[in-house]
Amino acid sequence: MPPSPARSPRSTKASRARRVDLRDVLSLIERAYLVWALVEARGNRTAAAVRLQLPRATFIDRMRHHGLMSCLSARPARRLLAAELDR
Q1: What is the pTM for the complete model shown?
Q2: pLDDT attached to residue 18
Q3: Is the separation of the CB atoms in 59 and 68 below 8 Å?
Q4: Residue 73 has pLDDT above 80, yes or no
Q5: Whole-angstrom Cα distance, residue 58 to residue 84?
Q6: d(CA 49, CA 22)
Q7: N or C: which end of the chain has fewer CB within 10 A?
Q8: What is the C-alpha separation between 3 and 11, in angstroms, rounded?
């Protein structure tokens, strides 16, 4: 039986540090996409849902899931985008 290749401690630590949960990444992408649609629609939720080809109820549900409902009512869409980009 051939000897197994030795792993360096450095490569093992690096691989552990780079682990990312796919659900977290997809959630961030979805949130950014929702914000983009809202900015393009100037805060109009119906127009943003149409832009994303989603039913309005689904769009609003996804906004609630990502905590965007309170942000939208408190700030204009451009300031919302600026706040999201600074995150």
Answers
A1: 0.63
A2: 76
A3: no
A4: no
A5: 21
A6: 25
A7: N
A8: 19
What b/e string do you get for 27-51 counting C-beta neighbours within 10 Å, with b at 16 or more? eeeebeebbebbbebebebeebbeb
Report the phi/psi class of residue 54: left, alpha or beta, with left for phi > 0 and alpha for psi in -120 to 50: beta
Ramachandran angles phi, psi of 34, nearest 5°: -65, -45
Cβ atoms of residues 54 and 64 within 8 Å = no
Report the CATH fold assignment for 23-86: Arc Repressor Mutant, subunit A (1.10.10)
pLDDT single digits (tens) 27-61 = 999 999 999 999 999 889 999 999 999 999 999 99
Mean pLDDT of 24-29: 94
Scan for tokens 């309005």, then name that residue: 56
